Q: What sequence folds into this?
């Protein structure tokens, strides 16, 4: 018993340390990663070289840097590979527009950096919402069909909500890794605050 007890104590401490290291890795740098909240939406083309390092054939999106979990040039963030149900409910430029609005499920494969995108992806630690009051911005890829499915004709910028969901609800398939260090581990991780790819660097 005298020999077993210290061993069990060691295992318990090691397990706790492992759990803490995963949590700290996700939280490192001050990134804000919540499984649901307010969102804004735009669309872009040229999605074949995403920051996560893996392109996909289904509906995909870039997310704002504060939620993505990495900075330009630092590689994948913890948002990579995670799937979200996104729902629009307003056009901020046409408040009288009543829809129809849509819900789709997207997989995060890319980063929308703060620099050059302050209106939509300008969330920071000191000001965690953008100019439209959204905590996370999704820039939806046109090339894989998500933008056409989500945006009503003539309305290319919307606001609404997002909720993280299992990627079993996403319709699509992943491509191969584009470079060493590519990661979309979020597709198999539990919802935030569970860790997928982990965060890199410091949040804006």
A:
């Amino acid at each position: 018993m005298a020999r077993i007890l210290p061993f069990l104590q060691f295992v318990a401490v090691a397990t706790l340390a492992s759990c803490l290291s995963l949590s700290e890795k996700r939280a490192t740098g001050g990134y804000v990663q919540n499984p649901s909240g307010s969102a804004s939406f735009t669309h872009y083309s040229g999605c074949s070289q995403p920051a996560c390092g893996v392109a996909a054939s289904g509906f995909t999106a870039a997310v704002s840097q504060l939620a993505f979990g990495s900075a330009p040039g630092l590689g994948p963030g913890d948002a990579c590979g995670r799937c979200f149900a996104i729902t629009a409910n307003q056009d901020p430029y046409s408040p009288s527009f009543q829809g129809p609005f849509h819900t789709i499920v997207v997989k995060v494969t890319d980063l929308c950096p703060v620099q050059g995108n302050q209106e939509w992806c300008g969330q920071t630690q000191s000001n965690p919402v953008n100019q439209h009051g959204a905590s996370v911005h999704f820039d939806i890829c046109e090339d894989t069909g998500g933008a056409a499915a989500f945006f009503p004709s003539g309305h290319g910028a919307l606001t609404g909500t997002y909720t993280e969901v299992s990627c079993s609800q996403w319709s699509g398939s992943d491509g191969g890794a584009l470079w060493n260090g590519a990661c979309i581990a979020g597709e198999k991780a539990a919802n935030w605050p569970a860790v997928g790819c982990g965060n890199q660097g410091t949040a804006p």
